[in-house]
Amino acid sequence: MQTRALFAPARLLAWRSVAARPRMADRSWHEASLAPGQIVCLRLTGQLCAGTADALVDAVYARLPAAMPPARAVVIDLAATPAFDDSARAALRSLRGLLSQSHARLRLVVPGTQARAALSSDGTATAIGLDALHTSVRAALLAEHAAAPGPALVTPAMRPLLTQPPELLRLAGCGRSSPRQAF
Question: Each residue of 10-39: pLDDT tens digit?
C-alpha cells in the first residue's frame, strides 16, 4: 500500500490553523469563564437559617479570591439543612448573583425532598437554576465537569476531586451561641 504525502504552502496551513481555533469573541462569556477554573466544594456543618445566611454569603465570597486558579464553580453541600426559611432562600439568591458577577456557577447539594420543596416554594430553585440542584456532592461535581467546554471525561486529574471530602464550613447561629461570644 502506497502512502502519499500532501504538501501545502506554509501560509495556507497557518491560515487554516488560525481559522480553526475559536476566538474569545466567538465564545460566550460563560464558556470562556468556565474553561480554566477550579471547583470549590464546601459542606455546611450546621443548618442554613436566618442566623447563618449572611455568614454563608460572606464566607463563600471570601474564598473566591483565594482560589487558584480562579473558581469556575462553587458546590455547597446543604445536607444538614432540612428546610429553608426566607432568609436562607434570599441568601442563596444573593450568593448566586455574586458568583455570576465573578463568572462562577453555584451548585447546591440538597438530598432531601422536603428541603428541595422548601427551596422551590418561592421560585428560588428556578432563580438559581433547576440544573444546579443535586442529590450528592459527586453528582454536582460530575455535572459541573460535564458543563465545562471540551470532553467530559473523568481523567486521572479529576478522580481526586471526586474522592476528596468537601471543605467544612462552620457557621455559628440557628439557636446556638457563637464561640466568639464566650470570652
Answer: 444 444 444 444 443 343 433 333 345 788
